[in-house]
Amino acid sequence: MELHNIEILVEKYFSGETSIAEEKQLKAYFSSSDVAPYLEQHKAMFGYFGQAKQEQFTKTVPLQPRKRNYVAWLSVAASVAVLAGAYFFMNQEPTQQDLGTFDDPEVAFAETQKALEMVSENVNEGVKSVAYVHEYNQTTKTIFK
After folding, report:
1. Is 46 exposed, middle or buried (0-12, 13-18, 19+ CB in 10 A)?
2. If 17 and its partner were Cys, which of 12, 74, 101, 105 is the partner (CB 3.0–4.6 Å)?
3. Is 117 among the domain residues?
């Protein structure tokens, strides 16, 4: 009858349904010398659990050296650099800039015409580019009708 009970406990063990007391009963059975021959294959597994329980880790664990926090120092240095740059930028003496003012109206008119001509050339370049886009749209409409 005990052998039948052990068979049931082995099935429950492999299904994950045994209690702690039932597992102790299995360990005691498999550590004894009178194990049934067809259950002999499980003896090594239960013997290992008993052996593994008594193993201890004896090696020393090397502690990792303390890492320096360079990111914190880097952020402090960056903020100091930004503050110093802002200070020097704000404390500069204002310089007189030539804003392109003219005393003679004819010279002012000529310079204005040059500036508008340059703008016109750039706008014409942009209009040529748009012509290619218009041609592309026409072709696309023809192909994907």
Report:
1. buried
2. 12
3. yes
Burial class of residue 95 (count of CB atoms within 10 Å of its CB; 0-12, 13-18, 19+): exposed
pLDDT tens profile 24-64: 888 888 877 777 788 778 777 777 776 777 778 788 877 77
Decide if 94 is inside a domain: no
The confidence band for 71, taking pLDDT boundaries of 50, 70 and 90, is confident
Amino acid at 27: K
Domain that holds residue 111: 104-145
Give the helix/strand (H/E) hosting 145: none
The answer to whether residue 99 is domain-embedded is no
What are 129-144's pLDDT values in tens digits?
A: 777 777 888 888 888 8
For residue 55 the two structure tokens come to: 């193993």
**Using alpha carbons only, what angle is made at residue 127 by residues 125 and 100, rounded to the nearest 5 degrees?**
55
Q: Are 9 and 22 in contact (CB under 8 A)?
A: yes
For residue 11, give both structure tokens.
């099935």
């040059």: which residue's tokens?
A: 114
Number of domains within the chain: 2
Tell me if 135 is assigned to some domain: yes
